[in-house]
Write a structure and sequence with these properties.
Blueprint: H1 14-38, H2 43-54, H3 61-64, H4 73-82, H5 90-107, H6 110-130, H7 135-147, H8 162-165, H9 170-190, H10 195-200, H11 202-212
Helix pairs in contact: 1-4, 1-5, 1-9, 1-11, 2-9, 5-9, 6-7, 7-9
């Protein structure tokens, strides 16, 4: 991403921070859908997700998503659909809620959390050598997802063009996106995000989105 992108201080509001983290989850879901259908992906949205996943020790909340809410614009737009303001893509919503479900399973599995943390530490070293979005790093993220999250009985079945999904590096890119969704899901939970709030505190989410637009 552009290193000159200004750091916009993240809002102090818990609802706004939850909205930004949740936007990361649904941005990952949106990119998985885009990759599976077209083989292409929005570069800014993609780099934001991968960099957030590789940086295991960010210096601030806003540093996680590159310092500007617009880096999560794809996810924020999906949240607008979630609160009923835009047309929702049911496939993207399904991926997003599945990611939150998997995040909850991971969160309560200490052994898997430790294993994943060790893998991400190694991948961070790899990223420092090759560059964050290098295909070796993406492949390692995909492998880490496959060896951890993919072992749960609940899995995300990705719909799309079968020939694209089997093309070179596509499984790894899809899994790296899913890993990013898990990363932002954990962030959402850390900020106080809960599934029931998406139902009973929809107005708070709408106000948060208004402040981020």
């Amino acid at each position: 991403m552009n290193p000159t992108t200004p750091i916009h201080r993240a809002p102090d509001s818990p609802a706004a921070r939850q909205a930004l983290a949740l936007a990361g989850v649904f941005q990952a879901a949106s990119l998985v859908d885009e990759l599976a259908r077209t083989g292409q992906v929005d570069t800014r949205a993609w780099e934001t997700l991968i960099e957030a996943t590789v940086d295991t020790n960010p210096e601030s909340f806003e540093a996680i998503y590159g310092g500007h809410p617009n880096n999560l614009r794809r996810g924020l737009d999906t949240l607008e659909a979630l609160v009923g303001r835009k047309q929702a893509n049911p496939v993207v919503l399904r991926y997003g809620f599945s990611l939150l479900m998997l995040m909850n399973k991971l969160r309560t599995n200490n052994d898997m959390m430790d294993s994943l943390g060790q893998k991400l530490t190694r991948i961070q070293g790899q990223a420092e050598h090759f560059g964050t979005t290098h295909e070796n790093v993406v492949a390692s993220l995909g492998e880490a997802y496959q060896e951890t999250i993919s072992t749960f009985k609940t899995r995300i079945v990705v719909q799309g063009d079968p020939s694209l999904l089997q093309s070179r590096m596509m499984p790894e890119r899809v899994r790296a996106c899913l890993m990013a969704g898990i990363r932002f899901g954990l962030l959402w939970h850390q900020q106080g995000g809960r599934r029931w709030k998406l139902v009973f505190q929809r107005k708070a989410l709408r106000r948060a989105l208004d402040n981020l637009s």
